[in-house]
Every structure is written in C-alpha cells, then in structure tokens.
Amino acid sequence: MSKLFYFLDPKGILLGETNFNNPKVLWCKTDTPELEKAIQANLKKNNSQFTVSITAYILSITTIDKAMKVWSDGKATRQDFTNNHIVFIEENKNYLAQIFNNIVTS
C-alpha cells in the first residue's frame, strides 16, 4: 500500500532570504526527499508493505513578477522557482496543475 503526503505552505516570499538557499525552500526541495528515504528505510527494516511518497511546495502569495525582480538578484526565472518547489497562487489556478501533475509523475 502506498501513501502520498504533500506539504503545502502558503506564504509571501519577499521577507527573509530571497534566494534558493532559503531554509524553507531547501526543506521543500532537499530535506523532504531525505525524510522520505529515511521513512522508507525504516519501513523496509520493519518488513512493512507500506511505501511513502513525500513532497512539499511553497505556495507563494507574492506574484511571480514581484518575486522575479527580487529573488537571486533579479535573475530567477519561473523555471527556477518551479525546480525549487515554489509555485505561485494565481488567478488562473495554474499552480494547482503544477502540483497535481507532480502527483501523477512522482
């Protein structure tokens, strides 16, 4: 049996570190997969039939235009944000497709 866990953290992203070494970004991109591996190893060690998939996203209430002007000295692209698990809450709801597409491909 497989369990999927998604952490969604809505926030503005202009306060604090405005680069991809931000601790909250690193937790979504790096720490979450490490957590998944540790849980999988523990489940395997205990002969469990469960598998776990964990991922996390920051849901930015800051617009992409504002973020791109500030993040990484104004050099960040939409793809950079996507690669670092930051999606933008937009009127057209495209951010939902990014998250749900990941469910299918994970």
Brief rundown of the structure:
The protein has about 110 residues and is of the alpha/beta class. The chain has four helices and three strands, in the order E-H-E-H-H-E-H. The protein starts with a strand and ends with a helix.
Task: Provide structural commentary.
- It contains 4 helices and 3 strands.
- The relative contact order is 0.22.
- It has a 3-stranded parallel β-sheet, sandwiched between helices.
- The mean pLDDT is 88.
- By secondary structure, it is α/β, with parallel strands linked by helices.
- The two termini are 15 Å apart.
- Please mark out the parts with pLDDT under 50 across 5 or more consecutive residues, or reply none: none
Percent in strands: 15-25%
The overall strand count is 3
The helix-and-strand class reads alpha/beta
Characteristics of this structure?
22% strand; single chain; 106 residues; 4 helices; 3 strands; alpha/beta
How does the SSE layout of this entry go?
Layout: E1 2-11, H1 23-45, E2 51-60, H2 64-70, H3 78-83, E3 86-88, H4 94-105
Parallel strand pairs: 1-2, 2-3
